[in-house]
Amino acid sequence: MKQLSVPHLIGIKNLQKKDLELIFETADHFKEVINRPIKKVPSLRDITIANLFFENSTRTKLSFELAEKRLSADVINFSASQSSVKKGETLIDTVNNILAMKVDMVVMRHPMVGAHKFLSQNVDAKIINAGDGTHEHPTQAILDTYSMRAKLGDLKDKKVVIIGDILHSRVALSNIYALQLLGAKVMVCGPPSLIPVHISKLGVEVEYNLEKALQWCDVANILRVQHERMDVKYFPSIREYTQLYGVNMHLLNKLGKEIVVMHPGPINRGVEITSEVADSEHAIILDQVENGVATRMAVVYLLAQQIKRL
Questions:
Q1: Are 150 and 272 found together in one domain?
Q2: For 97-124, how does the pLDDT look when each residue is reduced to its tens digit (9 = 90+)?
Q3: In principle, which of 3, 85, 102, 191 could form an S-S bond with 80, CB 3.0–4.6 Å?
Q4: For 86, which DSSP code?
């Protein structure tokens, strides 16, 4: 049986192209499962998974929990806001206490960059990164590229622009790595204050004019402005941001071609994207949500295959 080349999913940067292809192939199978009348398989009925979220999350947490339950795993949900972390307990003590309950896999979101790598080196469980600070969000990139592939086929030489708050976005970095592994061409577009200074070193193009970026691309992946990660103002006002970088139907109609519109959510309607665009035939935003469950089922299943049973 084919296996992933990595023992944990810490980031896309650690993966090979064959890993992404194996995840996609496995997700194709699970997508059939979740569209059947009985949406459950007994694949992981002897596996226990802990979902540890040290930051608030709705979509990612629900998507992982549903994926795990579709595979018949036993699931423990842990929220830091209601835990001993508030009383000063360290990350490793928290996780070791959970592992003492015989947990096989930990899905974690954490505000600190590198928390997952630290954990993978110090505890005996499979670790899946559900987002670490402004670093990576690998399963979002997997579901995004899977969704693009479903719409466009092979992504080699396809042009993808990531629009918006690149500076604070873990989705952007993971998407860049995944798209480049699959041979796509990547551009970032946004206000100069929200584009990392050295991002061109990653082999991506930089464009500050939204209209030019949309004219260039086959796919526009639109990110929200992450106010919660900002300690200073990066642009004068939301109104100005929307005027310069908000995607609307007027812009899309001017292109003279069809492009695919994506958004990892949550959407700020009327800011980075209008409702008209979000709900249009251009957008595959709800496909991304559905594909999120199938691809996360694939990741969890493939890592679980590496767990040694005595």
A1: yes
A2: 888 888 999 999 998 899 999 889 988 8
A3: 85
A4: G
